[in-house]
Amino acid sequence: MSKEEAIGLLRSRGLKVTPQRVAILRILLNGGHFNITQLLNEVRKIEPSISISTVYNTLTVLVNSGILRSFEANGKTWYEVKRQSHVNVVCEDTGEITDIYVDTSFIENELSKRGIKVKDLNIIVHGDCAGASKPEASNQR
Amino acid sequence: MSKEEAIGLLRSRGLKVTPQRVAILRILLNGGHFNITQLLNEVRKIEPSISISTVYNTLTVLVNSGILRSFEANGKTWYEVKRQSHVNVVCEDTGEITDIYVDTSFIENELSKRGIKVKDLNIIVHGDCAGASKPEASNQR
DNA sequence: ATATGTGCAAAGGGTTTGCAGATAT
DNA sequence: ATATCTGCAAACCCTTTGCACATAT
Q1: Which residues of chain B form CATH 1.10.10.10?
Q2: pTM of this prediction?
Q3: Model confidence over B38-77: pLDDT tens digits?
Q4: Contact A39, A79 (CB under 8 A)
Q5: Does residue B113 sit at the A interface (CB-CB below 8 Å)?
Q6: Which of A101, A108, A98 minimizes the C-alpha distance to A130?
Q7: How far is it, in rounded angstroms, from Cα A63 to Cα A80?
């Protein structure tokens, strides 16, 4: 029942709870990566009349409040729930994006040594996933 | 005299040597990161009549031939000469991109263990560079 | 000579903006 | 009650495409 989780998250950041926001957040809480078009299609199954500008607005709000993170790949912006840091692998043939959990804290350490405060770390790999060992949440192009 | 270097690189990949290609490559060989608009402005100092589609064409050719690499940040595509792997830090306030050299082979090793052939590794950090220790080539928004 | 590259203009796709009406608090 | 959010349409990039002319080999 991720609906309660979504509502709780919104309230915890002082954001108004609207059906559109709850629907978007629920989809993302289930895991994976979504671009705007995918999200619009998914959300419309729940909230058929939602507009694309509401999706954009909501995602901006959720990123700014620290619930989501975004990164750019293949000419689009991708959104995911902010959890432990990982590597986003963009599979060359399918366009699928797969999370691979690798400890990346040494990068942040190295950067802070040099006076850079890391707000967000994106590791994006383009590669061949044909032989990958299907580990985690993924999502298509 | 980076002109010879540019010409040599083009020939070594079997690419036709045109004044436009040489001009673009010379600019990038001097170091740093450029988006299309910046590159167009720079190249026009040397080749005033160059068109934006030639810049796009050339960059695609240079990326495909393995001379350049590209990554996306701030809604734009950035190009740089393919050299040793590093972290691209996007400074939040200025939009400047700075190279920080950190050994990232650990990540590639970890990924190949899981059956992923890394074609390109992009590490993009958004952060606060106010206190950074000005290390390497950089470039503005 | 001819395969390839260049430049122009138009089109495409993703994202942002402005604003009137609707809704959460 | 009112500050905020939503949905629509138009505008705004950045990037790609098609094609005639020019150029490198």
Answers
A1: 3-80
A2: 0.91
A3: 999 999 999 999 999 999 999 999 999 999 999 999 999 9
A4: yes
A5: no
A6: A98
A7: 9
Which run of H or of E encompasses A16? none
CATH superfamily of A84-127: Ferric-uptake regulator, C-terminal dimerisarion domain (3.30.1490.190)
Phi then psi for residue B79, to 5 deg, are: -125, 145
Asked if the B3-80 domain carries CATH number 3.30.43.10, the reply is no
In the predicted structure, residue B140 carries a pLDDT above the cut 50: no
Given an 8 Å threshold on Cβ–Cβ distance, is A100 in contact with B123?
no
- Does the CB of B70 sit below 7 A from strand C? no
Q: How many CB pairs under 8 A join A and B?
A: 117
For the record, the structure tokens of A85 come out as 């840091």
pLDDT digits (tens, 9 = 90+) for A65-75: 999 999 999 99
B87 and A75: CB-CB below 8 Å?
A: no
Beta pairing, strands A87-91 & A117-128: parallel
B118 CB-near residues (< 8 Å, 6+ apart): A125, A126, A127, B108, B111, B112
Distance CA B62, CA A127 (A): 19
Q: Where in chain A is the domain with CATH 3.30.1490.190?
A: 84-127
B45 touches chain A (CB under 8 A): no
